[in-house]
Amino acid sequence: MKSPKNQADKSKAPKHVAIIMDGNGRWAYARNLPRIEGHRRGAEAVKRTLKIAKEYNIPFITLYAFSVENWNRPKKEVDALMDLLDNFLTDQLKELLKREIRFRVIGRYEELPPHIQKRLKKTEKATAHFTEHTLGLALNYGSRTEIVDALRAVTKAAKIGDLNIEDFDYNDLRSYLHTGDMPDPDLIIRTSGESRLSNFLLLQSAYAEIHITSVLWPDFGEAEFKIAIKDYYDRERRYGKTSCKLHNI
Ligand code: IPE
Ligand code: IPE
Ligand code: MG
Prior knowledge:
binds magnesium ion, Undecaprenyl pyrophosphate synthetase
């Protein structure tokens, strides 16, 4: 297993890294290429990243691939993104099986084109038995719709007496989120220099460390991943407590 630090840091190792893959359009624009070429190169960066995450033994990785707001882009771009996704899933299934990675969709996937849904279901089913590593792909994902969906399901369950709202806490709520069977992210990486979450894992990232790099997503690779992980190890996660380095009050 690769690690930018020594074994002593094992207990601090991130269990869940989530990435906002941004900057495909700007990458293409800088080269006078169509935006879709940026997305194509972005798909290559996804393949690289999956390989690296497995080598670094990160149990959960979630990639933000398409937001609920991304439907507002030109139809030509949305269609091209769906085609890319279809091709990506087709050629990555054997890689997921070879590397024993469970595949999970995070998002309202019943609103995606039927042939994509079919492909997603097939990939999820074929990899469902893997337990060590999970790839979450955020597709048609938005935190606000996710929370609304969760609240609807909670209300329904409370109405039929399946849950007691008096004892209800965050852990119960999180089980209704798309990420219900994943731990909350330890580290969120955003490429392309933007300092915002763009409706991504808003509840789950309450105590996530955030690493922003100016590198555009198609250029993301092992060097950048290593910098992000090193940055994460250098943080002191206090969760509202006082610093363990400061003893005097
Ligand atoms: C990220 O790159 C990919 C998606 C959001 C689908 P962008 O397409 O947002 O690239 P920029 O932000 O325009 O450079
Ligand atoms: C966030 O990127 C969504 C994905 C990476 C899929 P956007 O490019 O859509 O975000 P904004 O519009 O810059 O906030
Ligand atoms: Mg963008």
